[in-house]
Fold each of these.
Amino acid sequence: MDLVVNILSMTVPFSVAILLASTGEMFNQRSGVFNLGCEGIMAMGAFIGMLIPFLVGGGGPVSGVYNWLGLLAATLIGALLGLFFGLIVVTFRAPQGIAGIGLQMFGVGTAGTLFRHFVGGTQSIPGMNSTPIPLLSRIPVIGPIFFSHNLMVYIAFLFVPAAWYVLFKTSWGLKVRAVGTHPRAADSMGINVNRTRYEALALGGALAGLAGAYLSVCQVKMFSDELIAGRGFIAVALVYFGHWHPVKIMAGALLFSFAQTIQYNVQGLGIDLPYEFFVMLPYIVVIVVLAFTSKNQKTGPAALGKPFNREMRT
Amino acid sequence: MNRNFKIAYKVSVIVLAVLATLLLSSLILMILGADILKTFYTIVITPLTRVGHITEVFVRAVPLCIIALGVAVAYRSGIINIGAEGQMAMGILGFTTVAVTMPDTPRFILLPFALLCGMLCGALWGFIPGILKAKLDVSELLSTVMLNYIAAQFYSFCLRVPLLDPAERLSGAGTPQSARLTANIEIGRISGRLHYGIFIALVLAVLVYLFMWKTSYGYKMRASGAQSRAARYGGINVPFYVTLAMVISGAFAGLAGGVEIAAVHRRAIEGVTNNYGFSAVVVALFGMLHPFGIVPASFFFALLIYGSTLTPRAVGVPANIVDVMQGLIIIVIVTTQMILQNSYLEDRVWRWFKTRTGKEEV
């Protein structure tokens, strides 16, 4: 029982990075843009997020404000990279898959380069402390699983209903879905397709940057080249799995995070398999899930991956 | 619109693209506070100044070229293979397994057999995303990346347990590496670490050209990539050719891994793949997805990769700068292609040009 509680209480905070990035990617894809550069944006966010508390405190303890400042800066740099991606795929209409790979290499490379110059070797930061919610965190089983994490965890899970509300209940959400489903119709109704896509990309990039910073500031409390470890790509896959719906995406994030958590509890589970096979597990889950969910992509945004050209007759 | 204008337009777009790449990389260098010109000099010129440097560039060009040829075959068939990193790792495992289990076999059997085994392992790792794409519509971009991570873990497991050098096991040091290969499986060296594998790369380039442009298989694969619906209407079994393309692509990456071990490292160690799988995508695009473009492109990117290993000492710029440049180059290439294809934009520039010069031409 302790073991189950232990695994589940790690599952919740570990899912946050994927959850945030995936929610952002959902907005991108709902607007018709497939942003594979998510991994690169996360890497940049993770680097910027840890850089600010590190520069202020030199690796020592810092006031919590600087952690938040790091998260904020990561969000901004993520939004900027999202807009940069918009320039490439919305304005210049470059093929989105390969351009995303370019953005991923650029982001990961830049984060690694700047990290080596400004930070140097492996440096940990104190990061964000956990803030158990009074009373609620003392409930047995449920308390440690849901209510004894750092503040970002609660905020991230509040983003799920917020994303649902924005996407389905606001006029901006309607615009995003319109340009992702039938840009030409949206255009003739006076919606600025490219502008809406830029906005969605900025929001998606901001969330991806925040997700990266969550990893470096709140979860691992350091930066390294292998920090993101494919979480950006998992986030993209999760959007398919979650059928472009925030709540289903949250369920997916928890599932993948569960697969990831198992590697930290191998001894307790008493399974005699080499360590590496547990590290593989989440990636295998992604492939299996993709194999089962990709065929019915018909339910997704109809204009996903298709650049929009006002001047072109169809 | 006259012909001179069209040529001038194309040239100026390409020049602008090169400038954009340089400008954006300079921006990163500026943040680092490095000497920009000296950095570019160290990356592009210094490696060409000594024979010892040039052979090292060629050593990196060989795997890049072999993998990029495979990537181009896949790309032409409509499937983007960014999983060459994992396919190469699997190829190394296949090659090394044969090499260490039957070291006493005569050379002319052992070397081809081991290379073939490496190719098979790589091909298998390419077959998985290929068949998933063909039958189940799984995005190859995602599945190949996931397979990279899986292969990386499997690779370090194999080096740590089944393939571990017995000497390491006895001494207890446990450095994850395989036993050293016997002399009868090594590929010889020409000068420095430059090895005869370079001829494998060149021969493959010609073979890929013949296969893709002079056989019906190649034609059908290119047709599947160019217009898959039209190809299907024309009676081409598109899923089969897409899978075949991935199998070939994986086999090439596996071969590159085998050659790398046989000629350069002579035992399987950590870090052999060295991001070649991702760089090869850039090489393939930069070489315009054509074998005769890929050969010089692989040399150019090997130059960048080797040059960037010199920058930390020469100008204090981390070697990761090469990843930044490669990412930018991909972005700039795909963007430039779209701009060149955009006839509306060209027309608009032409009209602007006419109003500025005031010349009326038909």
Note: The radius of gyration of chain B is 23 Å.
Amino acid sequence: MFKIVKKEMMTPTICRMVVEAPRLAASALPGQFLIIRADEQSERIPLTISDFDAEAGTVTIVTQQIGASTSEICSYNEGDCFADVVGPLGNPSDFVTMSDEELSGKAYVFIAGGVGTAPVYPQVKWLREKGAKVDVIIGAKTKDLIIYREEMEAVCDNLYLCTDDGSEGFHGLVTGLLEKLVTEDGKQYNQAVAIGPMIMMKFATLTCKKLNLPVIVSLNTLMVDGTGMCGACRVTVGGKVRFACVEGPEFDGWQVDFDEAMRRQRMYNTEEKEAAEHHVCRIGRGK
Amino acid sequence: MANRIPRVAARAQDPKVRATNFEEVSYGYNAEEAQLEASRCLNCKNPRCVGACPVNVKIPQFISKVAAGDFAGAAAVIAEDSSLPAICGRVCPQENQCEGSCVLGVKFEPVAIGNLERFVGDWSLENGGIEATVAPSNGHKVAIIGSGPSGLACASDLAKMGYEVTIFEALHRPGGVLEYGIPEFRLPKSKVVAREIEKVKALGVKFETDVIAGRTITVDSLLDKEGFEAVFIGSGAGLPRFMNIPGEQLNGVFSANEFLTRNNLMKAYRDDYDTPIHAGRKLVVVGGGNVAMDAARTALRLGAETTIVYRRTEKELPARKEEVHHAMEEGIKFEMLTNPVEILGDEKGWVTGIKCIRMELGEPDASGRRAPVEVPSSEFVIETDSVIMALGTSPNPLISRTTEGLEINRRGCIVADEVGQTSRKGVFAGGDAVTGAATVILAMGAGRKAAAAIDTYIKSK
């Protein structure tokens, strides 16, 4: 059992939890993810790792209530236990094997969308410690949905905010802000990293391509085991079928077939809708 | 004469009824049936069945105990060579092994060795069976990676010798393929698998689930940091193959592994579990092995009209005879000598059909089997909502990629000698991780041989 030692609601629908998982915390690196199964009857849900502390033996996860399973995860409280927390899964980001010399000359821009902002944090922290220059763009629908603002400010060079409704920062989408930074403000980057909803990553990649900027994306595909067994996470990258769980989750954005990836993400929408309609609430049971 | 008694058929659920539920198909023998069937054994002086068993269970000896009504004695005989009789009795391909070499089978029907083994296995699960003797702890620690048949067998033997054994399992429940791969209707999970695992736990073996070798831990971290003196890798062959034909990325195309894991491990068939599964109204399974039969029969039970597409003929189907028979009885359609060339989809990217081509058997290939060749211009379309690829699996590279000096062959299998010794000192391997996808009994045998080799290795240190 994996105990929740801390829980806070970052927005009315996004919660952050610190969970005891000593083996996982000791091996995790930026870019990796984990799988949670809340209780015996729950699905296995892949989530990005938002932070890890090998000494304390804990990992931090940030979950947005979208469907029945994510709502169930968010319903757990401090002191409760998840049945399973397994990982770290996937490959770490490419930069974890780069030397300080290599990284100190590099300028990164992160494009973070919604709950995808959380896994950006450990990457930015790592890169800045190694001497890279890192700017971060956080995009959200509205001001109240911006997460990790203070944390990010503390670790990055420049933080840029944008909201769909203009309630905070740049009025518009992350793509518009990125384009403005590069073409109008003269910002120069060697590498972009986009993490967020698939649709955002698609358009961020298109913008990067236009700006001739290489971009890494982190694909949040469907998964069952997360170890290469099921193939639910199949994505086409550079014309080849790849398993996001063991060959990803990070890929060269320019090469990803996003339309196929988005279509495959909706594979169980009908079943999930049915489940939501007939969902018998089990919250509070079996903890 | 005893051999004139006809082979006693195991009672089974009616095909029409069982096609709508996930309860076990075969009821197995009761004591009388078992004793009657056991009385058919000729107790040959040179029993060919024993040689045909991958772990050389002393078959005539256990059968004569069954005939005499001494079920505990029979269990003790089997236990000398096999640790999982309730499982092997259900899933072994007996027609190619023990039963296939039974002398009675020449003129009549072979003794139902599988059914008898199952009876004895179930009897000892029910009645406690034989008390295993565990030697006092010798203080040596051994790590086992994977809790499938090879890992369980290796762990049991080592624990009995007094070793402190920990099994690391990547999934949330132990059992490996017994849990995620083989369906409930063929191998009941709580009645059989969980109880066999309880037996292993009772020997003092520790289980750590949710630990992925190659990610959470590595072989080297176990040896260098956690104080294990030897590691046995029994991680199986879990990587699914696809055909690489157009349309395979459409929505509605699944690996058999995904489909079966959702249903078996994640219990998608039960209303009280959250796991979604998509069978559709019509479903096509590509392949002819046990996994293909399992996927097809699962889909049928989920309500899909199911067809199996196989490129050779019924004679070449690699699945157990009983599974093929059961699948046909339940109403699965078979399209033999048929091979998919493309999966067709609608404008939304969902499967609508599978385009196939007829095959004929040509000249024998390197394996001695007649190779299927395409019949020109014989393409046709089978309408379907889902396609399941059951084309075999290969070992997961997570462990070999993270273990320096561990030799693998070109098929990705770990190279190990007949007792499981790999290219790394103190690292042993067995089961599907070494052979590629094979059988439960072979994996179990490999686990037991490795246990003996690990004992020798640690004692000689």
Note: The radius of gyration of chain B is 23 Å.
